[in-house]
Structure formats: structure tokens, C-alpha cells
Amino acid sequence: MPRPLINKKTTTATGLPSQQVTRAARAPGGRVRTDRRSDRYVKALRALDAGGHVAAADVAKIVDDVHREFSEQYCSEPLGIIGKCYLGEPFEVHTLALDGSIIEHYRRGESLPDGMERARTLAESPMYLAIEVYADRVVCIRADGSAVLLESES
Amino acid sequence: MNYVQGPDLTPLVNRLNTVLDNQKVLDDKQNMLGAAVQVVQQNQDRTNKDVQSIRQVLDAFILRDELQKNLQLAQTQIIEVRQELTTHYGHFGDVRRLATGTLQALDAGIVSHGTMRELSEELMLLTPRYWLAPALVALAAWIRDDPDLAGKALNEAVRRDNDKASLFFALTLRRHQRDSATARWISQYTARQNPSVLSREFTVVLDAVATGAFGREAKPVVLEHMGDWYTKLCADQDTVDKQVARWAQMIDTLRRPIPPQYQILPVISPTWPQLKELYEGATVHGAAEEMFRAMFTGPVPQSDDLRVRVDDILTRLVGGFDAEEAPLRRKEAGLQAIVDADGDKVKASQVMQVEDPLHEQTTDFLTLLSNAALHGERAQVSLGTRRFAVSLARDWAVQGAGRLEAANMQAMPNVVELAMEGWTDVVDGSANEERLVQNLTAHIKRETEAEVAKVKFTGAPLAGAIFGGIALFIALIAAIDGGAGFASFMLIVAAVLGIWCFSEVRGLPARRAEIRKRGAQRTAHAVAQLRGGLAELVDLRREWEQLISQAASFRQYAESLNSTAFVANAPDQKRGA
Q: Which residues on chain B are in Cβ contact (under 8 Å) with A149?
């Protein structure tokens, strides 16, 4: 068998591309989901802000639900998700960084990492449940799961 | 008894009185001079105002003159372009009229075959390279049952323009309810098309589907292809992005100006331009919903006669999509835009930029849908087709409006700055009207007190008092030494200075009271302005919330539009027909 000229894609038992493809698509230019998000995902986003008392097992479940939301559609996965924090002063927003799968709460004036700062104003708005931040895009998720893809920043 | 005869002070007193009188006269003259300077100042202000207003009038005149010249030039040029169109392509018009004329003559059966043949063949000779001429020769031959000539002419028409000829014959056949033949023409036409580079005449197919001009057999073929193209192109994010951006651009043009009731806030807040932008940006959602509702309300004016519907589409097919004419038509559209904008070239070029995809010779299927949905008549589609296209493009409209909504949210300033009477502060989440009023009042009070503090016994009066004191001291020394004349003189100097200083000291409280009075007036005015401005800010915020909430209503309405509901049935294939 000749050697493939390019790296072979990893495939799952079903023959469909595995999540690796999704992860690779996180670089600028991957397909970003613009359709309505599932109830499961919306529920996971709501759980992110459960008063700051999210148990480790629950965090794993939330992160898993988030990963599934994108991998099932073979779409780009966000670098992180920002939401309005209802813990009260001085906390303003919280983030879920999908690389480290950590929920962090940020105080007023504290800057957000990984280019998430650009979506802060939107996250603070009560109009959106959460903001997904991609390498070159921002997607606003409303409470009903509908999404708005903002223009490319490139 | 010996009286010591003192020096006679009368002349000195008289001189002193004269000096005092002269000083009074000098004061009066100084006051008069001050008043005259004030008058000059007022005159200068008035002159400045006059010059400014003349300048405004002049600027307006120059602008109007320029617009007028642009308009006249565009009107002249548009006539030239139309003449050029008539000269070069006017004979196309004869062929075009003959197309529907022949079909209608066939319906009525009142024109002889010979006339049809003669006329169609003559036009064939007169319009070289034009696809419609051989198509009409084929039609005339078909009518008089001459299959050989019909076949040859048909081949020639297809050779000249395969796509348009296919659509022409498909529609002609449909006019005579030869549905399976129509379906064959249509299926070979659609199979040839590349959804990324569709010719502009595909608008006709869209029109025929939406108005039900295609028969039972052809319609599903076209709808299936269109469905596949739609799915395929929607998977390409860049193509979809372009459509969303176009919709956002169009919806953003629906902005309404901020009501004139806001008059104080623009004066006292440096954040006003952002607030205005925020307000006007939020008005587009309600306007978009109104536009959509107006478009989707009421019946679609279309005939129940299949032939009339097909003839409308045929007229559009033969009339509006010839590539040869396109550059001149584009020029005509550009000039027409200048005429429509009353000579405003900038506005016209903006309109042309928005309509740019409308003049492209080939477009992708999604752009074609947006053209039909956004420009309606300008894209040569009927109201029914526009509704169909809008319902297919609704997701882009919703996304476009969503982008504008998010941009509006992002544009919201964190704090509203206030600046008046040299005082600055901000209105943020924790702002309180009474605190702001107190701050402003305290600021003006501080300034007033600082001004009052400056009014004290210093400068010339103080120097006068010191010199007066010194003069008195010298007078005493001189009197002791026996220099009576010099002592008297110094006494007079001390007296003059003393009187002057006394009058100055006596005027100080009045000046202080005057400054305090002005300070109180300033405070009252500024506090009224501040309270008015804050009330306007509250109103603005409330109205903005109301306006931005209409985004959800627009979204809900647009999402309820279902494309299949806007595909009309053919008049000959309605239920019960």
C-alpha cells in the first residue's frame, strides 16, 4: 500500500470523522454553527452560572455537553464561552475555556484572557445567555438557543 | 491776644476740589468709553453672526447649484444613453414585441400564417446575432406546421443562446399546456446550470415557480434543483456571510432619525453622538417588521389566466436580460440613481453600491434570491416572487438584523458623560440625580466663592492706603519740622488717598453680593439643565429599550414566513379546476 501523501484523517468506528476534525477546525476559517442550539446545550450554559457551586462532576458533564453540541454537527468549537455572572458584585462575567475546561469568574475591571475581552460587552447584556468566542468570530446565543454570528474580524 | 496766623489753605482746597472734579469727569469719560467699547463688541458679534449666516446661505447655494448641475448633466446624459440604446438595440424591441404578439395572434387566430412568416423572417435578417429572431422563425414555422424549418430555426436559436431559447420554448409550450414538453426543456436547462454562476435570466425561472406559471411536471423538477442548490450553497459560510451582510446593510438603511424632543442632552453631554447612534440604530427593527408586513399583506395581483401569467414572464425574459445591452443599461441605472437622488452623487453611488449585485451578469443562486427579495421590481420580479424569495432568504434577514442588534448593544456607552459650566461628571449604573445636582451646585458654589474671594482690599487701593499712611506720616514729620507748606500738601495727598480708599472699601460688599447673585442664577439655570438632561436620558433609555425589543418581534415574524406557502398554484391546476 503506497504511503498517503497527506496525513490520514482519524475516523471513528462509524466511519465518520472523529472529534479531531472538529478540533482542527478551531483555527480561523472553520465552519461556525449559526443554527439554533439544542436544549441540552442551553441547559448546560445555564448550569455554568449555578451560583458558583458547580461540582467537579457537573463541570465535566457541562463540558461534555458543550463538546457534543459542536462535534455532532462537525463544526468549529469555540475557544471559550462567556456569560453574565449573577454571583453579584464584584463579579461581572464568567468564562468556560474549553481547552482547560475550567469555569472562571471575573471581577469588574479584570481583563479576560485569549481574546475573550472583545465579547465582554455583549456577555454583560441581558439579551444574550452566552457568547461563544472563536479564533476570528463571535457568536451570541440567546436564551431560546437562537444564534447570531457576528462579522469576521479579519 | 496773638493769633498764630496759619497758612491759607483755601487755594489748596480749591485745587483739591478741582482735582476731584477732574477725576470724576475722567471716571465718567472712562465709563462712556467702556460703554462705547461694549457697543463696538456687540456690533462685532452681530457682524460675525451675519457673516456666519451669509456663509451658511452661500454654502447652501453652492451645494444646491452643484446638485442642480449634476442633475441637469445626468438628465442630459441619460437621454444620450437611451438614444444609444435605441440606435444600437432598438430593433431588438421589434423582435421582443413580436414574440408575445405572435402568441396572442395565435390565440385570437386572426393573423395569417404568411404574415407571421414574412415578419419573423424579415426580423431574422435585420437582427443578426440576436437569439430571439430565429426562435420566432421557429415559432412561426411551428404554428404553420413546418417541422423542417422549425427544427433548423430552433437549432439556430439554441446555438445563439441555449439558456434563453430553452426557457422561451419551455414557457411557450407551457402556454399551450404541453406540460411534459415544458418539463423536458426545463430539466435539461436546470441540469446545465451551475448554481455558483447563474445567469440573470434565472430570475425568470424563480418568477415562474413562484407565480405558478410552470406546470405540474416542471415545477417539482425546478424546486428539487433549487432545494439542492440552496443546501449546497448554504454550507459555504462565505457565500451565506455575503447575503447576511447585504441584508444587514439593507435593514440598516431603514434607520429613522431621533425625535427633536431631545434638546438638552445634546448640549450637556459629550456622549450625545453615541447615544444618537444607539437610538437610531435601534429603530431599524420596527421599520424592518413594518416593511416585511407591508410586503406580505394583501393579495398578489396576478391574473387567473395562465396565458397572461406566462406572457408576463415571457416579456421579462425577452426584455431584460441581454448581455450586449448590459453596459449601457448599467450606465442608465447609474444616471437614473443620480436623477432620483436629485443630483446627489454620493447618495447615488451608495445606492448603486447596494444594487451592485443586481447588475452582475452571473451570480450565485443565493445572491439571485437576495436580489429578488431586496430589489423586487428593479430585479424584474413580481410581488409573488419577491415574497417567495424573501421567505427563502428569511434566515439571512434574521441573522442580519441580529448582527445589527448585537452591534447596537456593543455601541452602548458604559457611562454617559456630562459637561456644563466647567463641571464634568458621569452617569453610570450607580448614578443618583440628587448626588449629581449636589456636585454641580457645589462646583458652581466653589467657583463663585473663589470669585468672591478675589474681591478684596488689595492692589491699587491697598497701595493707595499705604501711600496715604506714608503721606500722613511725612506730613506729621514736616509739621514738626516747621515745613507748613509741605506738611499741608502731604496732608492733602493723604486725604485724597484716604477718600479714594474709603470709597473702594465701601464698594466691596456690593460687588461680592453681585457675584453671589450671579452665582445663584447660574446654579438655578445649570440645575434645571441637569435635571432636564437627566430626564431626557431616562426617556431615551426607555424608548431605546422599547425599540430594541422590537428585534425579537421582527425575528419571530420573519421566522414564521414559510417559503412553500408563497408558491402559487398554476391557474389551470388549482384544486377543483
A: 241, 244, 399, 403
